[in-house]
Amino acid sequence: MAIEKLLKYEQDSRFPLTLSKSESRLYMSFISFAFIALFVGGLMGLLQVLVRSGYYTLPAGIDYYQVLTVHGVVLGLVLTTYFIIGFQYTLMGKTVGISDTQYRVAWLGFWVMTLGTVMAAITILYGKASVLYTFYAPLQAHPAFYIGLALVIIGSWIACFVNWRQLYVWKKKHPGEKSPLLAFMVVINMIMWFIATLGVAASVLLQFIPWSLGYAATIDVLLSRTLFWYFGHPLVYFWLLPAYMAWYAIIPKIIGGKIFSDSLARLSFVLFLFFSIPVGLHHQLTEPGVQTTWKFVQIILTFMVVVPSLMTAFSMFATFEISGRRKGFGGLFGWFVHLPWKDVRFLAPFVGMLAFIPGGAGGLINASYQLNSVIHNTIWVTGHFHLTVATTVILTFFGITYWLVPHLTGRKLTPSVNRLGIIQTIFWAIGMTIMSAAMHIQGLLGGPRRSSFSEYNGSEQVAEWGAYQVAQAIGGTILFIGIVLMIYIFIKLAFFSPKGNEEFPIAEEEKDAEPTPMWLEKWKLWVAITIALILFAYTIPIMDIIQHAPPGSAPFAWPIGNN
Amino acid sequence: MHLHKYEKWWLIFGVGTLITFLLILGYGAFYLGTHPQSHGITIDPQEIEAEESFKPENLGLTKVDEGQYVLNVVASAFNYDLGTDEEGKPVKHIQIPKGSTVLVQAVTPDVIHGFNIAGTNANMMVEPGFISSMEVTLNKAGEYTLLCNEYCGSGHHMMFATVEVTE
């Protein structure tokens, strides 16, 4: 096998690898599940905006908060996790390959996650778990809900172990070579996911499950919230990083360019690993039991993600400009005008990138210590994450779907589906602009999030919110049309498009690119720094929370109708 | 590792802005003393009345000095208890003269609630086991809605009262 050592993977004609039929089936299972979730969750979203407009009441006594729980769980946890794991498997399959054992274990992960999802779904449908996706204690859902969530997490860990093993095996076979960029990114994201989910898993396994089964009489509410948000913020980066994988290493290929800088892409992922986790307290700024000093320390750590975010923004536009100019489009903006706007594989993620400008700016406002009091738990926050996750991330995922699904099913992205995709993207952009803007404004005026339609005290102040809630219903309806279009596109690409070979675009480095320094592969160091930062940011606050804990809380099942 | 010249400028500009930004936040927090609420004072959620402030007769708005008020609130699913008026009816409407300072103290005997005088900075989580408190000055006259902004169950959106800031 000496010859393998001489080859660098970029020059190696074996790359990218071919995905086998059975592999494709595994990946498609994850992605199909995500699209079922998209439809169910999207429908719930439509019902919510209609109810909140004040002109519609849910039939058959369905509770608004049950619908809201389905929306959050199915879109925030199920859609994202399934799509990401499926997509990341394809990236690993293309760059480092998957062995038979890894393949079987990956299926096991799929079934564990799916069993958990079905358990949680049934409890929610029976009205036994209207606790929203954050399931704050001491509201108490049926134990099956928490056990279902635990299984989803454990299933996702199996995907972590498989991905790590895939890269490990590859590196053993290719000593001294840097790992393929996309595999590097997947492994970073899964390290972050694993470390982050340890918090919520501890809370669910050690606190919620014994408490909901009646083995523990009370629960430490603040500790459970702190463990939840230790997971809750890296969760959003777990959504975002796969979008960044596509931006850094796939979009350049789609627009006919090269990767701007392999080493900067890796460095930004390492920085995201460092600064995604030790920051959860910024979701708990208005809580009575957390020390202000540590709130502020975590605020500073929160803002550190500005650095890799700026690096990413620079890389994107640098790639756009360099590839445009190389094609001969000069002038100040010629390269921009001639980007492939009519290619939905580019357009959808690009609109997502644009949404991240106001989305990111809103995030800075939310994390701004004092300003947080203005917007905390107002519908501004809902407007914020519908820009970030429900536009930036999801439009990038849609952009991936247009080529990934036909690649996996042996079909082609046809010009007519491409056109439909462009229309879908426009619907999404318009619908979200209306809905998210209305949410941001209503939030600044004090309108609360996570609330069914209410006239409250009938004051002028509340009446003022009405128009924005109607605007949200209009935007939300346009978005739902976008979802129906996307489901149609997905079915078409999966089952009915003409047979063919759709390209799996993986960008390459420039021929004369600077070599990537090997220190970027110091995995143990990156994990050690991540853990050190977490210990620094969380040890004292959590010790304080445990030592100064008030008497615990008994379960409350009746407020959510679970009795 | 190679950094493009423009990227260096871009990052220097970005990091510079970031540092300035954090300094302003720190100045606001530690020099001007503007923090979100955080006192860490605990209470037994099953015996909130053991605490003087939350005995039924002490709930609601009390004037302690000229322009100085205390507002004691018990938030429970799905109601804000602001005490009772002379006829024994629950108070759902309080009046505060413009410009006065109000020390808000809130607790819950059951689940997590929010305390938000909508459109103002009076925004706190109310969690079982802790006394939430903050001092607010309401400088703009008008009728405000005090509402629960953390999900507390099926009647969450029916949990409110009115705060009127009078001239």
Q: What's the SSE blueprint?
A:
The complex is a heterodimer of chains A (563) and B (167).
Chain A: H1 2-6, H2 21-53, H3 64-95, H4 100-125, H5 143-173, H6 181-212, H7 221-249, H8 251-254, H9 262-276, H10 292-303, H11 306-326, H12 334-337, H13 344-367, H14 372-375, H15 379-409, H16 415-444, H17 460-496, H18 523-547
Chain B: H1 5-31, E1 60-65, E2 68-76, E3 79-81, E4 93-97, E5 101-107, E6 113-117, E7 123-126, E8 132-137, E9 142-147, E10 160-166
Parallel strand pairs in B: 2-5, 4-10
Antiparallel strand pairs in B: 1-2, 2-3, 5-8, 6-7, 6-9, 9-10
Give a description of the structure.
- The complex is a heterodimer of chains A (about 575) and B (about 170).
- Chain A has about 575 residues and is mainly α.
- Chain A contains 18 helices and no strands.
- Chain A folds into 2 domains: about 250 residues, Cytochrome C Oxidase, Chain A, CATH 1.20.210.10; about 170 residues, no CATH class.
- In chain A, helix 9 packs parallel to helix 18.
- The N terminus of chain A is likely disordered.
- Chain B has 2 domains: about 35 residues; about 120 residues, Cupredoxins -  blue copper proteins (Immunoglobulin-like).
- In chain B, strands 1, 2, 3, 5 and 8 form a 5-stranded mixed sheet that branches.
- The longest helix of chain B is centred in the first third of the chain and has 27 residues.
- Chains A and B meet through helix 7, helix 9, helix 10, helix 11 and helix 14 of A and helix 1, strand 7, strand 9 and strand 10 of B.
Most strands sheet of chain B: 5 strands, mixed
Work out the number of β strands of chain A.
0
Could you spell the SSE succession of chain B in H and E letters?
HEEEEEEEEEE
Dominant shape of chain B: elongated
Q: Which CATH-level-2 architecture of the largest domain in chain B?
A: Sandwich
CATH top level of the largest domain in chain A?
Mainly Alpha
Q: Return the domain count of chain A.
A: 2
End-to-end C-alpha gap of chain A: 65 Å
Strand % of chain A is under 5%
Rg of chain A computed from alpha carbons, rounded to a whole number of angstroms: 23 Å
Q: What percentage of residues of chain A falls in helices of 4 or more residues?
A: over 70%
Class by SSE composition of chain B: alpha+beta
Q: Which spans of chain A of ≥5 residues are poorly predicted at pLDDT below 50?
A: 1-7
| CATH superfamily placement of the largest domain in chain B | Cupredoxins -  blue copper proteins
The CATH superfamily title of the largest domain in chain A:
Cytochrome c oxidase-like, subunit I domain
Relative strand content of chain B: 25-35%
| Gap from first CA to last CA of chain B | 64 Å
Secondary structure class of chain A reads mainly alpha
